[in-house]
């Protein structure tokens, strides 16, 4: 036991990478935490108890080999740790940055249950993969032997990029079609740089391009080609568009200028971060500088918006949420970060109207109280009579989540079946839609979810598509022989 590098959780306390001071990080869009140094990564990895049944892996959607690469890190075998981490994930350094580890791996760490504080798994994962990029251990994408078949992937988010990578390695010609001018989906335009710096995403995309994957940017299915036209061009198609239709508020004045959608606001900010000209920043319509900002919502998108507004120089930033802190769906770490940076949370409060005619001037709100649990088990908020008042606002950002777009209409494919929620209906044994040879994965199937689940879905659908394509090739070969 004396030589055992692990099980150090009793004598070594939990530690995360040092966060930059709030006043410093609130002035830029750089990531808020510094990376571990080698000694600290090894020290924190050595706290792992090496469980016989590792709940951290069980509760990771990718079932990453977490205890194994923690041990390799503790032993100083970083390249092996990276290679093991890379076996199950196409984007480990991205997951290390943005996964809600407190709800997944770290939240189910055994030593967390014993009161010693979880192993800081996400920070170690980020460190070993960033080190791999720095040291040149991340190998180029090498295509497999050509199969003579091609695949079209609609959507360049985490699910689509994961499938594109695996199918390219299997030898298929892969084309990725995306509506944006840069690949990455919400990784690029939805998540702010202070959580995920964009060069981290772009180097992943460049690796795929260098491996021969063809990207068609600013390409909208339905406008530039119908789904049927893509089916004719490719041997199989994957729909991995994600969900982009913002949920709205039904309240008087919601259409007033200055009441904007969260994704529009975040996209404009991220485009500015790339150095693009952003007309909505030039005219001030999507810029928080000098304004009283009110963000409505309690999820991670709302946290992205309030923290972006702080960095844009808002006069004040308030986040309205109709439940209390304990019932908030967003990460508690993000709430703490936002509070440190100067965001004010207004709990148990909901909007009832938006004031102003030429431009929004305020949000009329009512206090809420929690009643009996609803169907989801959460206590339902109820208005508290007589509590209405107005909050001053020059910019109101609606961050209420996302629903699927009407893909059958947009894609010109009315035979594409959807569920009552608007997500694509698939045969869960094959992940194929109602249209032969057209598969679907990610949020467009499961609804708005986590990046790590999109990667998992992209990994899973690869197997089904590969099986389908092999069967198609075999059938075609049989027809040629018979002829």
UniProtKB/TrEMBL annotation:
Domain Dihydroprymidine dehydrogenase: 26-136
Entry annotated with the keyword rRNA-binding: no
The protein's required cofactors: [4Fe-4S] cluster
Gene3D superfamilies: Alpha-helical ferredoxin (1.10.1060.10), FAD/NAD(P)-binding domain (3.50.50.60), NAD(P)-binding Rossmann-like Domain (3.40.50.720)
Region (Disordered): 370-389
FAD/NAD(P)-binding domain mapped to chain residues: 151-458
Biased composition (Basic and acidic residues): 376-389
Domain of life of the source: Bacteria
InterPro entries xrefs: DPD_II, FAD/NAD-bd_sf, FAD/NAD-binding_dom, GltD-like, Helical_ferredxn
Record key words, sorted: 4Fe-4S, Iron, Iron-sulfur, Metal-binding, NADP, Oxidoreductase
Pfam families: Fer4_20, Pyr_redox_2
GO molecular function: 4 iron, 4 sulfur cluster binding; metal ion binding; oxidoreductase activity
Keyword Iron-sulfur: yes
PANTHER family the record matches: GLUTAMATE SYNTHASE [NADPH] SMALL CHAIN (PTHR42783), GLUTAMATE SYNTHASE [NADPH] SMALL CHAIN-RELATED (PTHR42783:SF3)
Protein name, entry field: Glutamate synthase (NADPH/NADH) small chain
Organism whose genome encodes this protein: Sphingobium wenxiniae (strain DSM 21828 / CGMCC 1.7748 / JZ-1)
């Amino acid at each position: 036991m004396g030589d055992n590098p692990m099980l150090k959780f009793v004598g070594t306390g939990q530690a995360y990478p040092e966060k930059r001071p709030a006043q410093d990080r609130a002035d830029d869009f750089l990531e808020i935490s510094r990376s571990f140094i080698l000694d600290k990564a090894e020290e924190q990895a050595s706290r792992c108890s090496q469980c016989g049944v590792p709940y951290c892996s069980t509760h990771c959607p990718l079932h990453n080999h977490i205890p194994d690469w923690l041990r390799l890190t503790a032993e100083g075998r970083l390249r092996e740790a990276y290679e093991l981490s890379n076996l199950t994930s196409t984007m480990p350094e991205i997951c290390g940055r943005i996964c809600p580890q407190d709800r997944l791996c770290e939240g189910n760490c055994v030593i967390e249950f014993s009161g010693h504080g979880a192993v800081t798994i996400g920070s170690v994962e980020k460190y070993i993969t960033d080190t791999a990029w720095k040291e040149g251990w991340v190998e180029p994408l090498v295509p497999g032997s050509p199969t003579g078949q091609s695949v079209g992937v609609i959507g360049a988010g985490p699910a689509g990029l994961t499938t594109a990578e695996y199918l390219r390695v299997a030898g298929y010609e892969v084309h990725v079609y995306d509506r944006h001018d840069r690949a990455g989906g919400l990784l690029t335009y939805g998540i702010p740089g202070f959580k995920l710096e964009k060069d981290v995403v772009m180097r992943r995309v460049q690796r795929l391009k260098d491996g021969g994957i063809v990207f068609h940017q600013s390409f909208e299915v339905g406008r530039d080609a119908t789904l049927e036209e893509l089916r004719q061009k490719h041997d199989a198609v994957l729909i991995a568009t994600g969900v982009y239709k913002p949920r709205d508020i039904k309240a008087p004045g919601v259409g007033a200028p200055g009441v904007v959608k969260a994704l529009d606001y975040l996209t404009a900010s991220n485009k500015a971060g790339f150095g693009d000209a952003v007309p909505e920043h030039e005219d001030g319509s999507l810029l928080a500088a000098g304004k009283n900002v009110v963000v409505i919502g309690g999820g991670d998108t709302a946290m992205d918006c309030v923290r972006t507004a702080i960095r844009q120089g808002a006069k004040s930033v308030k986040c309205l949420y109709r439940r209390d802190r304990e019932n908030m769906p967003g990460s508690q770490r993000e709430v703490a970060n936002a509070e440190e940076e100067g965001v004010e949370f207004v709990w148990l409060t909901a909007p009832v109207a938006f004031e102003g005619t030429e431009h929004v001037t305020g949000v009329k709100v009512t206090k809420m109280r929690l009643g009996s649990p609803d169907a989801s088990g959460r206590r339902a908020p109820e208005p508290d009579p007589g509590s209405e008042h107005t909050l001053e606002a020059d910019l109101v950002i609606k961050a209420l989540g996302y629903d699927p777009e009407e893909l059958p209409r947009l894609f010109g494919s009315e035979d594409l079946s959807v569920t009552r929620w608007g997500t694509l209906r698939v045969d869960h044994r094959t992940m194929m839609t109602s249209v032969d040879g057209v598969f679907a994965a990610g949020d467009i199937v499961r609804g708005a979810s986590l990046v790590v689940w999109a990667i998992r879905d992209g990994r899973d659908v690869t197997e089904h598509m590969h099986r389908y394509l092999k069967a198609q090739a075999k059938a075609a070969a049989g027809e040629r022989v018979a002829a």
